[in-house]
Amino acid sequence: MKSFLVKTGLLVACMVSLFHGKATAESETEWSLNCEQYGDIKPNQNPTYQHINCLLTNAAIQADIPPEVVKGIATQESHWRQFVDGKPFISNDKGIGIMQITDTTLPKEQQERLKNDILYNIETGVRILNNKASLTTLPHINGAGRDIIENWYFPVMAYNGVVQVNSPLFQESGEINHEAYQEKVFLNIKKGSYMGDTDLARYPFEVKDFKYVDKVIEFLEPEYIVQGVHETTIELKAGDRVLTTEGDVKLRETPGSPEYKVKLPIGTPLLIEGTFEFDESEISENQFVWFPAKTLDGQYSGYVSSAYIEKQVAFKAVSSSYNSIKTSWAAVSGASGYEIYRSTSSTGTYSKVGTTTSTSFMNSGLTTNQSYYYKMRAYRTVGSTKVYSNYSAIVTAKPIPAVPSSVKAASSSYNSIKTSWAAVSGASGYEIYRSTSSTGTYSKVGTTTSTSFMNSGLTTNQSYYYKMRAYRTVGSTKVYSNYSAIVTAKPIPAVPSSVKAASSSYNSIKTSWAAVSGASGYEIYRSTSSTGTYSKVGTTTSTSFMNSGLTTNRSYYYKMRAYRTVGSTKVYSNYSAIVTAKPLPAVPSSVKAASSSYNSVRTSWTAVSGASGYEVYRATSSTGTYSLAGSTTSTSYTNTGLTTNKPYYYKIRAYRTVGSMKVYSNYSTVVTAKPVPTVPTNFKATRISSTSLKLTWVSVSGASGYELYRSTSFSGTYNLLKSTTSLYYTNSSLTTGKTYYYKLRAYRTVGTTKVYSGWTTIISAKP
C-alpha cells in the first residue's frame, strides 16, 4: 500500500508548501543543506545510509514531525531505497521512490521528478503526512503536541489509507490488528529508533470507538488519554537533562564508535552538551542519532544514542526493584534541595522520607506490590530559613521485581535455543515466553530459578522470539516484573569446537574437530591470510579433512561450519574459530636406536614422504642440549667414536629443500642406546672326539674377552664354562652321546667394569 495524494491539488500546488508555513523554495533547500557534508547526490544512485538518515531527519525537523515517524514510514515503504539496480524504485502498485508516492494523475514532469529526485520525493512524502495530521476526522491524544510520537499513530494510518485493513482492532474479536500499516510502521520505529528496547504506548482503543462505512473507517471517539507516551529526542539541546532508559548504556568515544568510556545503569542522568550527530560510518544502518553528553559529575563525557535516553520530566516514580521505588524530577532553578514525601494512599497522610540535593531519590525497604504515593517540594535556603515551593503533583508506583536485563537468545544446537539474563534482585524465579513472530502470541515455555533456560525440541532454522519476566512470591501470590525486551534466535547446528589444524606432510594439512550434534556434514574453508577471502576446499561427513596439494612452509588458515540438511536446504552453523598450520615434512616415525659396536650407535626410522634428507641430533641426557650429530639422505645413521656403555639420546627431524632453504619437520620422539660390544657371530660347536667339543666364533671389534656358558638343557641353568681372550675353546671330559647347550657373549673392560654384549643364539652339540 502506498501514499495516495488527496485530490485537492496538493502536489500540483506544491509552491505553497505545508512545511508549517514555510515557502517550498526554502524547504527544498534549507533542510537538505544540513547534509552537505555527505557530498552531492549522484544520479540513479542511492545516497549512503547515513546520508539518507540525515535527509529524512532534517526533512522531518523542517516539517515539525518527529524524525522517528518519517524514518519508520520510509522503512516500511522502501527500506530507504530511491533506486534499485540504477533505476527508480517503482512498486507493483505504481508507488514511486523512497516514500512510495502514488498518484497516476500527476503531470509527467512531476512523475519524473518523483522518480529521479530523492529530495523531492522525501519532501513530498513528508508534506503528505503533514496534510494527514491536519485532518480533523482522525483521533488524537489529549494534551499531546506534534513532538509526541504516539500522537502520529492515526496520521501514519492515513498516509496509507483510513480503510478497514488498517483498523487498529479486528471489529469481530477486538484483538490488535498487527498487520495494519501503522502497526508495522510503529514496529519499525521501535526497532530502528529505539533498537527494539522501548515499547511505544498504545491507545486504549475499543471496537465501539469506530465503524466501517464502505470499508472506510469512521472514528467515533475523537480524543484519548494515553499514558507513557514518548517525546522525540531530536529537539534536545545543550543544557537539557536526560535519563538513560536501559541498563549498560555505553557513552561512546565518537558517534557510532565501538570504543566507549563507561557503561551507565538505567536511570543515569546526563547533561546534553550539543546538537545531535549521525554515525561516523556512512554505511552504518543505525537509524537513531547521537548526542554529545556528560555525566552530571563531569567525570565522563562522550556520545549517547538517542535510542536509550529520554528527557527528564518534572516528577515521576517508577519501581526500581522488588522493595524500592525511584522518584526523579527536573532540576528547579535556584533550589538548594528537595524533600520527598510518601503515603500509602493518594489522600492519606504524607510523611517525609528523604531530603536530597540530587534530582532523584531511591526509597528502599518497601513492601512488594504495595502502592505508594509520592509528592515532593523544592526549597531554597535563605540564611537559616528554608523557603519552600508548592508540592508537586502526586505520582504513584508499586515495588515489583526489576525487568530482566542483558537478555540474550542464542542457538545452542540444531533443535535448541538458550536464553539468558542478569539476575534480578529479590526474584523468586523467572518465566520464559516464546512466539514464532515478534508481534505474535507468546506462550509460556518454562519457569526457572536460574538465570538461563534451554528451550529444546525446536525446528531447525525457524525463528523464535522470547521475552521473560521475573516474579517474587509474596505469600501465595506471584508478583511479576514487566516483560523484558524481546530477543530472537534460530536453532542452527552448533559451531564446531576443538578445531585443530596440523601439518600431515610436506604438501598436506589435516583439520579436525569435535562432532556436532545433529549435523549432516561439514564444510571446510581455507585462506592464505587470517583476514583474507576464504574459499571452500571440501565437504565431509567425517570429523576430519585432509587438504592436499599445498605449498611447503606456506601458512594456511582454516575455518569450518557444520550444516544440517532440512528438506533440500542446508542450514549452517556459524563459522568455527580460525586455525592455522604450515605443510611441513612429517615427523620421522618408527625411530629406533641400537648399539652397533662398542663405540657406535645406529639410529633408523621410516622414510618421510617428500623429505630431501634428515638431521640426527644427540645428547647425553634426555633433557640435555641436543647437538647435530649428522645429516643423511638415508633412513639410518651410524654415530661412531662414542664411549662404551654411556647412554646417548637421539632425536631426528626430516627436511625438505625449498629453493635454498631447508624446511624442517618437528623432532621425532627421543630414543636412547648405549654403545656395547656386538654379539659374537659365526658361533659354532664341532665334535672333536667322543668326549670333547670345540667351540669357535669370530672376533668382536673392541672386545677384551669372551665368556662361554654351558647347560645340559636348552632352558636350564647356564654356568660359566670359560672366560677367554681366544676365539675358540675345547670342552673336554664330556659324556659320549649327551647333548650340551652353549651361549657366548663378548665383553669390554672399562676401568674395572666389564661391559657385555648381548648373548649369541644358543647352539647345541653331542660329543
Automatic annotation (TrEMBL):
Superkingdom: Bacteria
InterPro entries in alphabetical order: FN3_dom (IPR003961), FN3_sf (IPR036116), Ig-like_fold (IPR013783), Lysozyme-like_dom_sf (IPR023346), RTP_Phos/Ushers (IPR050713), Transglycosylase_SLT_dom_1 (IPR008258)
Key words, A-Z: Signal
Signal peptide stretch: 1-25
CDD domains: FN3
Residues covered by the Fibronectin type-III domain: 311-402, 403-494, 495-586, 587-678, 679-767
Keyword Signal: yes
Protein name: Fibronectin type-III domain-containing protein
Taxonomic placement: Bacteria, Bacillati, Bacillota, Bacilli, Bacillales
